[in-house]
Structure of Aspartate aminotransferase family protein:
Amino acid sequence: MPTPPLAGGTAGPTHLRPLLDTVLTALHDGATRRNGPLPAGGPDTVTHHTRTTTGPVLPDHGTGPHHALRTLVTALTEGAADPAHPHCAAHLHTPPLALAAAADLAASALNPSMDSWDQAPAASALEADLTRTLATEIYPHTPHPDAVITTGGTEANQLALLLARERHGPLQTICAANAHHSITRATWLLGLPRPVVIPAPRGVMDPTALHDALTTLTGPLLVTATAGTTDTGRIDPLDHIADLTTTHGADLHIDAAYGGPLLLSPTHRHLLTGLHRAHTVTLDLHKLGWQPASAGILAVPDHHHLTPLHHHAPYLNADDDTEAGLPDLLGRSLRTTRRPDALKIAVTLQALGRDGLADLIDRTLTTAHHLADLIDQHPHLQLYARPTISTVLFRPTGTDDTHVATIRRTLLDQGHAVLGRAHADGRLWLKATLLNPHTTPEDHHRLLTLVTHTATRTRTTPAPAPRPAAPPAPRTPAPHTTTEGSNPR
């Protein structure tokens, strides 16, 4: 077998072009075979079918690039939960923009490693410009805001707690019951006390309970607020919380992984009033930013706040190199080797501009309010509350939590819809997290029809037993036909 060609250099694009054609054909064929938001049959069926159609991962003799790409990409696509399908709406799992995915291909082909300048000369300059630009959106009134790129909200939150620990030593974290699980996990990883958890009635932090905690607790304190919870999408009263932390001398971190991009929408940025008062802010653009994972950000009001991240490794940032003017990149992350995720984000920002990004955000939030209207008007469905961002909780009327869970799993098993689940007000709800700006009113009607029909069938019929591990038989398409141009797959 000849030596396989490389993706880089002047010959790289020539070698990539026919391979990309194979990949794009496989993506199309796999989506056509799936014919829905996810494969039918549940875990055992999907695992068996994937293994039987892909063959051994490491054969004795290679199958060749086109066969391997065609086989595995088709199988992965056929067995995917496709966030571009309007009925795949369970999680903060966005359908990435085509232009961002294309930029990610370039990043993979060039393969800069963002741990030393001599591995990423232009990429390091682009990342510095991008992080300053995003930090300035969050902290418009400080002279030297900055940010680092992370793998997502979890890493950004962990870095925020690390920086707070480095400022104050062992400190006590206070969060509300609506906080992301990564806050508690970060305290464990950093050897900090478990967070003091205060109530979150109506899904947001209770300022009175926060005042009591700040008054009672001693020592350095860090309050973590949330702008966009994973369960309901609610946003804590950020300005009020900032007032309390200022009065009591506590630090403030705001996890705006979900809601942070609302800053780019003139219509919705008021929901984030007070965000700039935080010592650190988490932002995640592979949620309401339509980026391929990963695309997380941790922003600070002054670049000196990132100094504790500095690390010295002579083979990457020797002192004399730094003194000679080579940028020191190790202090930009706790990771060493890392991808140039700044490229896809920068391409998206430049291609769409402020008005294009605002339009995407506004369209997406409008779809959530439309779905809420349909649920509110439906005689057999109950709406939890009006959406704050793009998360809509609902459940069939006259049912219990066990039945709600059965409805969700039945839709998954049949391959008809991917809905999440969330507890609120002591009950279990179906959760639709809408992140697809191409979703249409017709898509919403079909989704609700699937839910109500499934609720009726499962109310009198026991939940289906696990299917045997066998290849899936051809199935009748789900009652969904995408409008031309409304939902690229």
About this structure: Residues 113-340 form a domain with the Aspartate Aminotransferase; domain 2 fold (CATH 3.40.640.10).
